[in-house]
Specification:
heterodimer; A: alpha+beta; 5 helices; B: five-stranded mixed sheet; 22 helices; disordered N terminus
Amino acid sequence: MAIYNLTVNSKKVKVDVEDDMPLLWVVRDVVGLKGTKFGCGMALCGACTVHLDGQPARSCQTPISSVGKNAKITTIEGIGDVKLHAIQQAWIEEQVPQCGYCQSGQIMSAVALLKTNANPNDQDIDAAMSGNLCRCGTYDRIRKAIHRAAEAIKVEEKGIGKR
Amino acid sequence: MENIQTSRRDFLKTTGLTSFGLALGISAFSKDAVVKKLNPAILKLEINPFIIIDTAGNITIVNPRPDMGQGSTQAVPSLLAEELEVRLDQVKIIQSDGKDKYGSQTSGGSSSVRSLWEPIRKAGAAAKEMLTESAAKRWNVPVAECFAKDGTIVHKPSGKSLTYGELADDASKLEIPKNPKLKDPKDFKILGKYNKRLDVPERVTGKAVYGIDVDIPGMVYASILHSPAIHGKIISIDDTETKKVKGVLKVVKTERTMPHRTSEAVAVIGTNYWAALKGRKALQVKWDNADYEKTLSTEKYFAETYEAAKKQGINYEEKGDFDAKYSSAVKKLESHYETPFLAHAPIEPENAVVHVKDDGTIEIWAPVQGPDWALRDVCAYMKVAPEKVKINVTLLGGAFGRKAYHDFLLEACHLSKELKKPVKVVWTREDDISQGPYRPGMLSHMQGFVQDGKIAGYHHHAIGESILGQVFKGLKPDEADPWLSEEISTSNNKYIFDVASKISYTHVKTDIPIVWWRSVYASNFGWGQECFIDELAHLAEKDPVKARLEIIKDERFRKVLETLAEKAAWGEKLAEGQGKGIAVFKSFDSISATCVTVTKKGNGVKIDKVISIIDCGYYVNPDNVKAQTEGNIVMGITAATKDGITFTNGVCDQSNFHQYNIMRLNEMPEIEIHIVDSGSSPGGVGEPGLPPIAPALGNAIFAATGKRMRKLPFDINNLNG
């Protein structure tokens, strides 16, 4: 066992866990944030996607010992806690989720995509989102929602610019 | 379930009341402590089992169908709300707990809306009539002068009104009307209209609570090592390395109970799930697999189905003397169509939390499709009366049939009893994919002939394992499985074969555990039926749409096919290397037809576009009908072109998503969905879109390449493979 001082969703958290415990189980069972999901345990489905310093990471294959001391961990609970993120809003507008279980991971991947590419085309979306499986089959709406969110962010930024 | 919490929070914000949590029976796993406080001044009144109105005016409606993504959390309460004259954002929705008073509670067979369309609306209408009568009495005015609106009864002449909460006490003392008047569909405000699902915000913020998210005090975690050959017996357990894992509490021999058999298993109990899982991976268990290395084999199973195809099956229906007409026919065809075993692979793996308490009562938190069936199974397995068991149904992170099979729940019951503690069992993806139950693999032996340029003779011989036989009441040796036979019968597909037709079945058994999978046998037999009709159309030198319309009189089928032809611009010139294929299938009282367009690409094809048409009669939310149909397109293409489940030497060859691939976003074709408004009785929505997908694709591939695919799955990038 070892003590790890983590920053999860901008809050300092101290955990005492085994070095090889994946970040997924630290976040879910130790920190108690259940929004990040277990799907495959092999980084094949993307349900466990979180951000490590802003980069999407598969937390089921990320041992806690590999997470840097100063790393910032962001989970689904941390991206729209004050105001829904444009991606979450677009997910509601397009009525994306069916069962919704994979959507935390989908949304984390989509938020990361828009951070680096404010205007993704379909190929960009393919590249960023194909690691996230959805068994309910919501892919068409995910694509539409990402385009919608990108538009919404552009409109919002224009508005801010005018002011 | 989460929209309860949303509306509760909104309510708390606006009123400052902190009192209605427990009155609503929100389950104990809710993270919010407020829930446990109950103000005794507020009286909770059950108007009928589905409607609870407290004297503060809070309205709770009970949803008897668990939500696995199909939208029942909106669909079923909408039926009540429409007749009760409340808006969905005014009410709290809770899940039923399996008890008899709620009737059938299993989400399966696309049955929720089609079976509850009348009874649940009647429950709403009855409550509305009772509330109206109470108001009329209070005011001493005729009932006819009063009407219900948004949770109040209004006296039309004077404009005065009373809320449902103010009337609940009086109403609960009235007789429940037996034949309440239902609204005319033209007056519907909710049903048939686009409405956003109120549970979506919880599902995009990580707040929705699925079974796997339930934590209760004192709970331990279990990871269970199952026999690789499903039914093997334990020879020896070496847990030396397991016990060295920090956090491992115990290793216990346990069992997995399936409907047809109980298997031995080893559970590793930990203070956290990772410890239990790590400990389980360190176990050294020797298994006696008996004959299963030989008998659990999909190769052997399919060899037996092809053998059976050489013989006569048991007739389910026959018109004319098919064999005689077939043998004398000049233009005839014979084909075999095969569909594999498939895993459901919901992204949320199977899991359950069970607490067998000291007083003999049992509390359960689990993602189960049917709390009524779960209650029945738990009572039988634990030998307890239903009143001793409380089931809290959580949201389901996908299910597709899998979570109506309660092996994982009974495992948690067994362990909690043994350990005298609440236990959370979580299956791994490997457990989910390699342990079953699966959709059975099936064979369609097809024969048919053409006379005077028209499809005139048809025989569908269905061959394979029976869900009714293995999972339910069993099958007599001389019985054609009625479930699957009905699905492929001419009374279902509405094809009229002028000369002769026959539907027959041969039961080939397997010990590989099976259960229903989205659209059940329609997912198997749509492939054989619709590809073969296409083959016969070509034999008749007819266009596949025209050939079908020639042998279908049923108006709804014709309308669906004609709509598809129109939307797909059927018959218009195609680009070089392009081909279009269609298929139509009726399942769960809804008719769905699909047109797939593909383009040749190397040795394979690329899917350009999928257009699906659905006539599901009356429906609740057109957007949800579309969403479900979209999901069926994805699941149908996956089933046709990704991996099947195979067993070699007693062991499943697939274990995780690298060997059991499902379609990814970059493979998503352009899609288009159209609803045919027939105004018929409601049909299913969650499943009927799936059966036509694979055959429409197969027929498109034939149109583009001349290659007839007959065995699923195939590699879409290499059709010769």
